[in-house]
Prior knowledge:
- It is a single chain.
- The protein has 3 domains: 1-18 and 214-256; 24-98 and 187-197, Roll (SH3 type barrels); 103-179, no CATH class.
- 20% of the residues lie in helices and 31% in strands.
- The protein contains 2 helices and 16 strands.
- The chain has helices at 2-12, 215-255, and strands at residues 16-19, 26-30, 35-38, 50-54, 59-65, 70-75, 78-83, 87-89, 103-106, 113-115, 127-130, 138-145, 156-163, 167-173, 177-178, 209-212.
- The longest helix has 41 residues, at 215-255.
- The radius of gyration is 29 Å and the shape is elongated.
- The protein starts with a helix and ends with a helix.
- The relative contact order is 0.17.
- Residues 4-21, 203-218 and 241-256 have low confidence and may be disordered.
Amino acid sequence: MILLLIILFSLENSLVYVSASTFDTYYARIMYDDVYLYKSPIDVDEYSNIYFSLPRTYFVELLESSNSEFYKVNYLSFTGFVKKEFVQTIVGKPITPYLENQNFRVYSELSRDMRTEPSTISGSSSQVVYIPLYSRNLTYYGSIEGEQLVDGRTNIWYYCKYTADQDYYGYVYSDFCDEFSLDEIPLNYEEVSYTSEPNFDSDNGNQTSIPIENKTTAIVIAILTIPAIIFVFMIIKGGKIITKEGRKSNKEIKDY
C-alpha cells in the first residue's frame, strides 16, 4: 500500500511521457489571427499561393513535416500547408477541431459571382458559378484580402462552399454579404495539452517522447500497476507458505 501511494504521488507531481507513436493522428492549434492555409510550402503571401486565413483557436490535422518552416495539413476537406511558427502541436485529438456551420447570404450583384480568386481581373475565366440573389446556402471557411471592388470599402473576400445541384467552392466579395460577421466568429475554448513537434518518421523505429500534463492519465497508469503489485505480493506470500510446508515435511521425516 505504501508503494502504491509513492507511485501515485510521484506521477501526479511530474510529467507523464508517452511515445508519439501512441497517436494515430496529430493536431495543432492555430494560435494567431491571419494564419494562412497555403497551397504550396513556400513563403509567398499572395492569393495565388493562399487558400484563406484560418480561424484562430481552431485546429489543423498535421500530416507531415514538409520542411523546416511548414507542416502539410488537413483543414476540413482542404489539404494545404501552414507555417510551424504560428501553430502549436497538441496531445490527442480535439473534440471540435474545425469551425463549421457558419452560413451567410448574398444580397448584391457584386457578391453573386463565385470566383477561383479574390478578384475580377481575370474576368469570366475565373467565374465558378453564378449565385442567385438572396441565397443563404453558402458556408464560410475562411477569408482573404483581395481586390477592393468598391472604392472606400473592404478588400476582404470569403472563401466558401455554395450548395446547389452540386457543391461549388470559391471566393465571394464580402461587402455585400450579410447574416454573418468576422467579428462574431466564435472562439474555441477547448482545453488541450501542448507538446513539441511529433516525429512523423514512424517507419524508422524512432519514437519521440511527448509530455502529457494530466493527472487523470497519471492516476490511470497508477491503477494499472495495482495488479502487478498484487501479483508480486502473492508470489512472495506463496513462497513463504511453500517454505513453511517444506520445513514441516523435513521435520516429519526426521521424526520418523
